[in-house]
Amino acid sequence: MNRKAERVIEVSLFASATCAIVIVALILLFLIKEGAPILLKLGVRNFCLGMTWNPIAIAGEPSYGIFPMIVGSIYVAIGSLILAVPPGVACAIFLVEVAPGWAQSLIRRGIELLVGIPSVVLGFFGLVLLVPLIRENIGGCGFSILAGSIILAIMALPHIITISADAIKAVPATYREASIALGATKWQTIKGIILPGARSGIVAGVILGMGNSIGETMAVLMVTGNTPVLPEPLYNVLEPARTMTANIVIEMGYAAPGDHQQALFATGIVLLLMVAVLNLMSHHVLSRIGVER
Amino acid sequence: MNRIRSAEISDRVASFMLGGSAALVILILLYIIGYILIHGVGVVNLTFLLDSPRLGGAEGGIFPAIVGSLCLVAVSTLTAVPIGVGAAVYLTSYAPDNTITRIINFSVECLAGIPSVVIGLFGYAFLVVYLGFGFSILSGGLALMFMILPWTVRTSEEAIKAVSAELTEGSLALGATKLQTVRHIILPSALPGITTGVILGTGKAIGETAVIMYTAGSSLLLPGSIFDPVRALPYHLYILASEGISDEMAYGTAIVLLGMVLVINLIAVAIQRKFQSR
């Protein structure tokens, strides 16, 4: 093959690598093109902090305030982390430090399968089992922040386990051996040496999990009830809530082009910004550890 | 002596708790799969798989949705593989350490972090409206491709990096050009790893809903061409369940969807095993 053909192929390989740049740029461009007009018209502040979402007003002006949705997204995400982090980290410790070989491969297979379950299937599971369970045993209408948090926690578990396990594995074996040699029990070693050593990695995993949870759509949509108002009182996790992702998916179906559709793209911009900030924070923490070790 | 004893006891308790949380994860998994299987296994039969839905899905089968899902996954995989593997070859074998390479890597990371619903919005604005593809297999497939592209790039990169440097250097030392080395040495050795990554990528694509809702449409008819709309399995499941059309049919659809994901994962595992044993 001659030099010219080599060159052509090299250029086309470069072109396919730049596809990622082009796609990301197009996504930003189109989100801004479709979402910016309404942000400019209402003001970013009014849009993000507005308390009422009423896009199809029968009488009077429609209003586009997504503050309840921002709160809803953060609410279910934090709820999911509260539920998923303790068992997730414990499972990671077990996986790396305690489990015999057969249990390790069992857990790994289990995690892979759990990741593979489509979110809409988890949402359906929540809808048919969890929602009635909450309604009958705890109270409220069942469609709730609690239900959303539980389903999201199930989705977040595998990621938290994987990242925490990596962080735990990265603690130098010499530390562990030194601690055991000094007569510490396994638990004392875990508590005193391994967990502090793996802390930044675990934190990075938790932040990433938060980002994933905020960006998750289907599973949350099917179990949280989707009312675009703040829970009343604010701490009541049995109240329904609507997340930003759910807002987009529910209303895209009937939003007329114009302010309403633009408001949904603007919701997408806010969502993307929040997820991006969390992802960057997580990468920052991870790369800092990478540099240190 | 007492302190040693209490340390031993807390060691026992801790191991028990740690093992317990691991067991919890497995139990949740088994419970979800078991629950859906028990409730839906009666629905799934050949008629269900091969019949068209009637009354909006309350009766009949899910054949068009299965076809729709397969079409979408085919379009996304067939477009993601050349671009993704090409990008991976470039990044591992050609890319100089400069700003453009860093921007490429950063973009791949960004794309991986973008929530699927945002990709769906973009797909609607760009593919459906701006490019005029309408609600179609093409729009949905391309939108799915945007979602699985970063995964394809990263897994292919890892597979290529795992090829031993000695092989590559040996080939170059024998006077082969870079392209010849990539074609005859690197790609064949990395093929099992790349294939595994691609197959796992299809597993991600097939379960995705938010991306395709407003790009692929929701027609329950069999598509005649790539420009026809389809309703994929996950979207069908969502509509059946959330609009209360039929729980029974929804369970059946969930089983079929889970089954497809499971088969895809098993194939990937089998390829990995075969490769490792060589």
TrEMBL record, chain A:
<keyword id="KW-0592">Phosphate transport</keyword>
<feature type="transmembrane region" description="Helical">
    <location>
        <begin position="12"/>
        <end position="32"/>
    </location>
</feature>
<dbReference type="GO" id="GO:0006817">
    <property type="term" value="P:phosphate ion transport"/>
</dbReference>
<protein>
    <recommendedName>
        <fullName>Phosphate transport system permease protein</fullName>
    </recommendedName>
</protein>
<keyword id="KW-1133">Transmembrane helix</keyword>
<keyword id="KW-0472">Membrane</keyword>
<dbReference type="GO" id="GO:0005315">
    <property type="term" value="F:phosphate transmembrane transporter activity"/>
</dbReference>
<comment type="similarity">
    <text>Belongs to the binding-protein-dependent transport system permease family. CysTW subfamily.</text>
</comment>
<keyword id="KW-0813">Transport</keyword>
<feature type="domain" description="ABC transmembrane type-1">
    <location>
        <begin position="70"/>
        <end position="282"/>
    </location>
</feature>
<feature type="transmembrane region" description="Helical">
    <location>
        <begin position="74"/>
        <end position="99"/>
    </location>
</feature>
<keyword id="KW-0812">Transmembrane</keyword>
<comment type="function">
    <text>Part of the binding-protein-dependent transport system for phosphate; probably responsible for the translocation of the substrate across the membrane.</text>
</comment>
<dbReference type="Pfam" id="PF00528">
    <property type="entry name" value="BPD_transp_1"/>
</dbReference>
<dbReference type="InterPro" id="IPR011864">
    <property type="entry name" value="Phosphate_PstC"/>
</dbReference>
<dbReference type="InterPro" id="IPR000515">
    <property type="entry name" value="MetI-like"/>
</dbReference>
<keyword id="KW-1003">Cell membrane</keyword>
<dbReference type="GO" id="GO:0005886">
    <property type="term" value="C:plasma membrane"/>
</dbReference>
<feature type="transmembrane region" description="Helical">
    <location>
        <begin position="263"/>
        <end position="281"/>
    </location>
</feature>
<feature type="transmembrane region" description="Helical">
    <location>
        <begin position="111"/>
        <end position="131"/>
    </location>
</feature>
<feature type="transmembrane region" description="Helical">
    <location>
        <begin position="201"/>
        <end position="223"/>
    </location>
</feature>
<feature type="transmembrane region" description="Helical">
    <location>
        <begin position="137"/>
        <end position="157"/>
    </location>
</feature>
TrEMBL record, chain B:
<dbReference type="GO" id="GO:0005315">
    <property type="term" value="F:phosphate transmembrane transporter activity"/>
</dbReference>
<dbReference type="GO" id="GO:0035435">
    <property type="term" value="P:phosphate ion transmembrane transport"/>
</dbReference>
<feature type="transmembrane region" description="Helical">
    <location>
        <begin position="211"/>
        <end position="230"/>
    </location>
</feature>
<feature type="transmembrane region" description="Helical">
    <location>
        <begin position="250"/>
        <end position="271"/>
    </location>
</feature>
<dbReference type="InterPro" id="IPR035906">
    <property type="entry name" value="MetI-like_sf"/>
</dbReference>
<dbReference type="GO" id="GO:0005886">
    <property type="term" value="C:plasma membrane"/>
</dbReference>
<keyword id="KW-1133">Transmembrane helix</keyword>
<protein>
    <recommendedName>
        <fullName>Phosphate transport system permease protein PstA</fullName>
    </recommendedName>
</protein>
<feature type="transmembrane region" description="Helical">
    <location>
        <begin position="133"/>
        <end position="153"/>
    </location>
</feature>
<feature type="domain" description="ABC transmembrane type-1">
    <location>
        <begin position="66"/>
        <end position="268"/>
    </location>
</feature>
<dbReference type="Pfam" id="PF00528">
    <property type="entry name" value="BPD_transp_1"/>
</dbReference>
<dbReference type="InterPro" id="IPR000515">
    <property type="entry name" value="MetI-like"/>
</dbReference>
<feature type="transmembrane region" description="Helical">
    <location>
        <begin position="62"/>
        <end position="91"/>
    </location>
</feature>
<feature type="transmembrane region" description="Helical">
    <location>
        <begin position="21"/>
        <end position="42"/>
    </location>
</feature>
<dbReference type="InterPro" id="IPR005672">
    <property type="entry name" value="Phosphate_PstA"/>
</dbReference>
<keyword id="KW-1003">Cell membrane</keyword>
<feature type="transmembrane region" description="Helical">
    <location>
        <begin position="103"/>
        <end position="127"/>
    </location>
</feature>
<keyword id="KW-0472">Membrane</keyword>
<keyword id="KW-0812">Transmembrane</keyword>
<comment type="similarity">
    <text>Belongs to the binding-protein-dependent transport system permease family. CysTW subfamily.</text>
</comment>
<keyword id="KW-0813">Transport</keyword>
